[in-house]
Specification:
Layout lengths: L6 E3 L9 E11 L5 E9 L3 E6 L10 E4 L12 E9 L7 E7 L4 H55 L1 H8 L6
Antiparallel strand pairs: 1-6, 2-3, 2-5, 3-4, 4-7, 5-6, 6-7
């Protein structure tokens, strides 16, 4: 069975930074009439991960041709090679595939680099915000802890010196 081990890796050569993506993609498998469609889940300058309910044949190295739109803003290269595949979690009909790009044009590669850089900037900004929130919440926690210590010391003083505490609570009225 193709997915008997739940994860089959042909090759994993991650040497580029990957960013999350959610873009629809359509492809055809070279040498066959198989067409497929799915979602790009992450992308780098060297490849991408796609999610689909289609089963691809890994034995032939599967060269995929992607439907690169004629739009000048498209950053998905036209061809890629299947390099790994796995079933998605416990899903019966969802699969993840690693695609390595094959000789993308300089124009597409330039747009792809730009897209990855925007993704990196976005992640960096989010990390900075979370770092600030971490520091802020830690400061609030320390302040609350110090306040609790102060209140507990006041309670201890009242229990250790009950007569003095009662006289402090009594209102002195002039005669």
């Amino acid at each position: 069975m193709l997915f008997a081990s739940n994860r089959v890796r042909l090759k994993d050569a991650r040497n580029s930074l990957r960013v999350k993506e959610s873009k629809r993609v359509v492809w055809t498998t070279r040498g066959s009439d198989f067409n497929g469609r799915g979602w790009v889940r992450d992308i780098s300058t060297t490849g991408m991960k796609i999610e689909t309910n289609e089963i691809l044949n890994q034995e032939d190295g599967s060269i995929l041709s992607f439907d690169a739109s004629l739009d000048k803003s498209d950053y998905i290269p036209q061809t890629g090679r299947l390099v790994w595949q796995q079933r998605k979690g416990f899903s019966k009909n969802r699969y993840l595939y690693g695609i390595e790009f094959i000789e993308p044009s300089e124009d597409v590669l330039s747009r792809l680099r730009s897209r990855v850089q925007r993704g990196i900037k976005r992640v960096t900004t989010i990390r900075r915000v979370f770092s600030f929130l971490d520091i802020f919440l830690f400061s609030v926690f320390v302040a609350l802890f110090i306040y609790v210590l102060y209140l507990s010391s006041q309670i201890i003083k009242i229990f250790l010196h009950p007569i003095k505490a009662c006289s402090m609570l009594r209102v002195n009225k002039p005669l």
